[in-house]
Automatic annotation (TrEMBL):
Family matches, as SMART domains: AAA (SM00382)
GO molecular function: ATP binding
CDD domains: ABC_Carb_Monos_I
Phylogenetic placement of the source organism: Bacteria, Pseudomonadati, Pseudomonadota, Alphaproteobacteria, Hyphomicrobiales
Keywords noted in UniProt: ATP-binding, Nucleotide-binding
Similarity remark: Belongs to the ABC transporter superfamily.
Record organism: Mesorhizobium argentiipisi
Protein name: ATP-binding cassette domain-containing protein
Amino acid sequence: MNTQTIPPLAPDAPVVLEMTNISKSFGAVTALVDVSIRLRQGEVLALVGDNGAGKSTLIKILSGFHQPDTGTIVSQGKEVRFASPRDARAQGIETVYQDLALIGDLSVFHNMFLGREYRKRVLGLNLLDNGKMREQAQLYLDTLGISIPSVNSTVDLLSGGQRQCIAVARSIYSSPKILVLDEPLAALGVRESAHVLGLIQNLRQQRWVSVILIVHNYNQIFEVCDRINFLHSGEIALDASTADTSEEELIRIVKSGLGRKGDRCRRGASAAGLRMSRRQGTARTIPAGSTPSTGPRMEHSL
Ligand SMILES: Nc1ncnc2c1ncn2[C@@H]1O[C@H](COP(=O)(O)OP(=O)(O)OP(=O)(O)O)[C@@H](O)[C@H]1O
């Protein structure tokens, strides 16, 4: 992984997202109670919590799949309401779900440009411009520090971690403001997780996109996140920068059922699934001089 020390986020980094007092119930099931989160430009925020804590519900509200019962969302300084995922995308919020939505028997470069292919006219025919897509895909993956055998490989031949990186790369090709990653490390082994963590670390170093990283286990996040929001039973039990908290504190909160934001977090949380080991990554860093200041603006952008 990119092991360079990344300077802390500037204290005056603008707020790009504020979700305030969000509540959501599904019939008799209360999924979220007055949840507020705030995300700043370039920040990597981990949203952690046990099964059923409400993580997916919160990001589905942010992604436009669900509407909150109460609460407000302010994106880029203005209040927004997302009636659909399309609305959220139009506001620059991209979400990568666990299914990744890649087509396994297509090449990496075809997947990168799915639905937005380069085309060229040859003898009056409208053909795919495979050469250009290949070249652009390679350039883009290099910029993000993603290493794969070849952009010509079919996605099925890649490791789980590499596939996850391609899905993330495809999502950020459209230069979103906010990237939501839904459990990107789920079901990945140590080496595969390292690819993904390396990519997140590279994004964090560049600071042009803000990232919400949903994780069930929090053993890897201290290396790649600026801040942690810990959800428990539908409420935020802790909101702290990674520098100001520790794995030990999270474990203590889970065991005691108490959050720093008061005694709202109910007792009896299970520590199951909260593993303590940290994993090391190996993904490449972005070469000096190739770091874009406002994000990788490619020739073709949605
Ligand atoms: N569509 C739905 N209908 C009914 N209940 C739901 C629905 N979606 C979520 N829930 C309930 O809301 C609560 C929060 O679920 P959510 O999926 O947001 O938690 P989570 O933190 O993402 O959990 P996990 O890590 O297991 O995915 C749970 O009790 C869940 O059963």
